[in-house]
Each structure stands twice: as structure tokens, then as C-alpha cells.
Amino acid sequence: MNDYHERLAKLLLEKNEMLSYHQARTWVELMWEDFETTAAKAGRDYLGSEMTDRIVRQWIENYGDRLHDFVAENPKYKDFLIQDKNTMN
Fold first, then answer.
1. Which Pfam families match (predicted)?
2. 23: Cβ–Cβ under 8 A, 6 or more apart, which residues?
3. Residue spans of alpha helices (H) in 42-82
4. What is the 3-state secondary structure (H, E, C) of 25-45?
5. Do the beta carbons of residue 81 and residue 26 sit within 8 Å?
6. To bridge 18 with a disulfide, which of 29, 47, 68, 76 should be the other Cys (CB 3.0-4.6 Å)?
């Protein structure tokens, strides 16, 4: 799973230079978990990491360049995405 998250975080960083690596990785993990949780709650069969990777990749391609604006409109995610001042990117 870490390989998927790592590749997706790098893709997101290519799409959005406003994010740090930590923020991109957090976004990927949040989107991954959201897709799998939503599918499970809907009673869908688990389709595997490859399907989740495909969906999150599609979200990044479609919305990745604007994800940094999401926090301004949705403050409940702010704590997940605040840049840690003690880390570099």
C-alpha cells in the first residue's frame, strides 16, 4: 500500500506545487480511505488496491491542481493539512 501512496503523492506534487510532500501524502491517504470507506458503507464488494489506486489517480488528475483551495472552504480538514513547521516539505 505504501508504494501506491508514494506514487500517488508524487503525482499530486506534479499537479500542485502549492502542497508540501507531507500535505500531498496526507491528501492521498485521505482520498484512499474515503473511497474505500464509502464503497464499504454502500455494501460494494472490495475491488482491491488497484481499483482504489485508479480512482484516486483520477481524482488527482481532475482536481489535484486545486486541492490546496479545499481547506479554505472546508475547515474541518485544516488540522490534517497544516504544514508542520518542524519539517521540510
1. WVELL (PF14043)
2. 68, 81, 83
3. 49-63, 67-73, 78-81
4. HHHHHHHHHHHHHHHHHCCCC
5. yes
6. 68
Tens digits of pLDDT across the chain (89 residues):
689 999 999 999 999 998 999 999 999 999 999 999 999 999 988 889 999 999 999 999 999 998 877 766 666 666 666 655 444 44
Contact 32, 5 (CB under 8 A): yes
Q: Name residues whose C-beta falls within 8 Å of residue 16's C-beta, 6 or more positions apart in sequence.
A: 24, 64, 65, 66, 67, 68
CA triple 14-32-48, angle to 5 deg: 115
Q: Beta-carbon neighbour count of residue 60 at 10 Å?
A: 23
Q: Which pLDDT value is given to residue 85?
A: 44
Chain-centroid distance of CA 19 in Å reads 11
Type of residue numbered 58? Q
